[in-house]
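WARN retry 2 of 3 for item q-0093 after timeout on previous attempt; input resubmitted unchanged.
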Amino acid sequence: MHIFLLEPYYGGSHRTWADGYAAHSHHYVHLFTLPARFWKWRMHGAAVTLADQVRAQAARPDLILASDMLHLPVFLGLTRDILADVPVALYCHENQLTYPVPPGEKRDLTYGMMNWLSMLAADRVFFNSHYHYADWFDALPRLLKHFPDWTHVHRIPEVQEKADVLPVGCDLRRLDEGDGDSIPSADPSAPPLILWNQRWEYDKDPQTFFEALYALADEGIAFRVALAGANVRQMPTEFDRARRRLGERVVHYGHADKITYRRLLHQADVVVSTAIHEFFGVAIVEAIHCGCFPVLPRRLSYPEIVPCPYHEACLYPDFEGLVTRLRKAVSDDHRDACLTIRAALRRAVSRFDWATMAPRYDALLASLARRQ
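OK item q-0093 returned
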């Protein structure tokens, strides 16, 4: 089967997802992409540009797989003469209705409405987590009732009927195999290494993470910290402050290339999230796969990643719970218990590897193509 995969925001987790599926699918997946910048303009204008790219192709697809950054009705309108009978699946990494807005900004309902119209236009809609699915359909009636008349609320069940949950695939085997380089063994005499491998942005709430580290440091608890993850900010104030305050405890600071990132994943003992927003959590899955003990919020998508028997040990309800679980995770007294949990969770997240996920994607998309 020939699939056209449309990704207007080809960077970060969107790029990893698109490349991963193209590499692991048994179908032929042809990528149509635009650089990951100017996200608002991408949502307005990418449909026109990608329609031009698709029209320039001699081949005709059996199915279109589009990400949520594409204004799908516009794309379909511009290609209706050549793609009118081609089935379309929409994959939702996030949505612009419940995604947290930056401090000081007001939500623009235009982009949430674009997501809704794209869902109406698609033949199938996939969300990357049950949390994302529930979060969207909980907020959607409030969006639609905001408008003065003909509010579409009666169409919500129609979209729910064609919607499903399909987690992001992760290339976990790559983290084990690498590119021929070996992972240096961790120094058993060194203090435990705590890893931050998420974006350096407001929706990940790094300040709460640092407050927890400061609490441990004030207690005299030995630990090291690696501050990796993507940073697009010119002045990451809370990170600079933490680097000064934690001093020699900070063993890595800033963007990590692939080899360094892989080394940090395997050498870290604990990975922490303090996010106020997470629809899936690729970085956390990668860290758990590489043996990190996760300390995560008891909300968002994390209860889906960590199996129920380990919720109490790994998922915290509040700041006090964060500090308590982090303290235990770096304590020698709880080392054996943590190692047992780390091994169990590594096995659990293997279900997200593309070796498992790609056949699920292939089967669902092939079924859609046959029905159409």
